[in-house]
Amino acid sequence: MKKIVFGILFFSLMFGACSDFLEEEMVGTLTQEHFSTEQGIEDLINGAYEGFRFHFAFEWSYSLTNYGTDEFTHGGGMDRAYFNNYDGALNPGEWRDLQPFWDNMFAHINQANTGIARIPEVLAGKSQHNTRLGEAYFIRGFNYLKLVEQFGGVPIKLNPTSSIELEFRRASAGEVIERVITDLRMAEQLLPNEPAQKGRAAKSAARHFLAKAYLFRASERNAEFTRSTDLDSAAFYAEQVINDPRHQLAPDFHDIFNYTTVNGPNEHLPEIIFAAQFDDNQSLLGRYGNRVHLYFPSVYFTLPGMMRDLANGREFQRLRPTNFALDVFDRSVDSRFYKSFKTAYFSNNANTLPRWTEDNAPSPELVGEPRFQVGDTSIIYIVNSLDDDRFVRADIDNAAPHIYIRNYINDEGQNATNYTLSQYPALSKYFDHNRQTPNDERGTRDGILARLAETYLIAAEAYGRKGDYAKALEFVNAIRERAAYKEGEERKIEYYISENIPFGETGSTVEDMRATVNAFTPGTPEADQEMYPAGVTSQEQMFVHFILNERARELMGELIRWVDLSRTNTLITRATAFNAQAAPNIRERHVLRPIPQSHLDAIQWDGRPLTADEKQAEQNPGY
């Protein structure tokens, strides 16, 4: 299928991020005639799809989604660390990420509003009428979902802006999520079963996000407006996607992120339900491209025998995994850990090879010789348990490659690590070797917004919250069995070292990966292994935290974690328990983001600016 060519120039000129709705008068004036034509509608909807790239385009991709959670804390690159540390810089005046997010979501909503208003007339009786109208509803519902997840209640705007508008009042979170559901249900009715082009939304995308929206409304943060049928609806729409023959889980977890070439096999997997489209056409990459590849890698190019290259990425070192992120996996049986994290590198610089010295050479004749050659393993991260006493400092000093050990016994007999803010196992899901140069920041790989494994977990959570644990475990175990090592499957050398497993062991771990109700039954050994935070004592509580753990194992770093913890009212509990940098400052107010001050300063009520008290009333509590 032909890939959509997005109207980036069209978008940037006509629908660039604006302050709320204030600059959209010119947009409406300049484009009304064009949007009264079939080509104008095509341009409008194609341009609106470009908006999905926003979620992968810059630092807001991770700062609003993975910082300040149990999965990741800041690394050595601390440019947005206040989102992780919840310090005073995270306030209504924050303009680098919160304001662009707010402005862009509303810009894309206005595009959708224009389409919803124009399509019934312009495309009346045309074959593309339902599809384009469904796409417009999908785009509006998606963007309002993103807003309500972050901010709670926001203004609801359903008509295109055609003149200067200043009068805006927040709707409640309940009203916003109801609008999301209404729009996505319209999209689900109108969209085709299969998209005509790669990257367009189909019924399955609408159903996935409908399931997500219903589950969001059924979650603890939204208890005051949860409806009794929400869990049934979440399960219903999730199962419609799961039972759709157009979508299947990839055979191997590794397949999903095995990016071999632009628009390659991993970007056409039937597991992918919806993705923001990128490629290596430099004229269409826009200002940013997909930049998420920059934010997870740890520093390697400064080490002897190494230099920065395309394969290993450019290291902005923003996101460092927490101990929870490393330990939530049973690494000996769950292949997702070593398929999600980079734990070894190969030497690529003959000019800086380290050499044996008299202090560390295994034999005198090796003094002055290279410790390894180009192409040899040059860096190994040993991800052992925190109670592992097999290693001592000499294992680091006397090894041929650079060795980073999570826990070793130092010369004083104490537990120690040589992991640092800048050296740690890096999430490998976003590596992009198809950029033009090693320092190129604009990435080319598609950004996954919905994949089938998450749909399985939505269904599992819905059934488990209803008390049907057997049904929930069917969905959980479908993805856990996929995650198991298969008979004869090779493991990485660092797997054997870290997990203390005999070299060459390649047995199946499918049976070990199957979860039972014991995983969330108080007092069982299986529940003890799940790292539940203090105070999580009932089976109902444990189930929610079990699903959060399983979502971490499957969806680690996939830019949804903060929302998961916020919606379940577990953000404070889990950030406090597992993120040492977040723990001192996180407060109840942080379960929502502050409404941007730029919005509050710009709007009016009854023709006048808001007073200080009125602005405070429109702001989220505690800011």
How would you describe the overall organization of this protein?
- It is found in: Cell outer membrane.
- Its main location: membrane.
- InterPro entries: SusD-like_N, SusD_RagB_dom, TPR-like_helical_dom_sf.
- Keywords: Cell outer membrane, Membrane, Signal.
- This protein is mainly α and 623 residues long.
- Among the domains are: 8-71 and 85-195 and 584-623, Serine Threonine Protein Phosphatase 5, Tetratricopeptide repeat, CATH 1.25.40; 294-427, no CATH class.
- Helices cover 39% and strands 7% of the residues.
- The strands form 6 sheets. Strands 5-6-7 form a 3-stranded mixed beta sheet. A two-stranded antiparallel sheet has the order 1-3. A two-stranded antiparallel ribbon has the order 2-11.
- A hairpin with a 5-residue loop joins β8 (408-409) and β9 (415-416).
- α15 runs antiparallel to α20 (539-555).
- The longest helix is centred in the first third of the chain and has 25 residues, at 98-122.
Proportion of β residues? 5-15%
Number of helices: 24
- The CATH topology of the domain at 8-71 and 85-195 and 584-623 is given as Serine Threonine Protein Phosphatase 5, Tetratricopeptide repeat
- Main CATH class of the domain at 8-71 and 85-195 and 584-623: Mainly Alpha
What's the mean pLDDT score? 94
Model regions low in confidence, pLDDT < 50 over at least 5 residues:
1-30
Radius of gyration, rounded?
25 Å
Main sheet specs:
3 strands, mixed
Share of residues in helices: 25-40%
CATH architecture of the domain at 8-71 and 85-195 and 584-623: Alpha Horseshoe
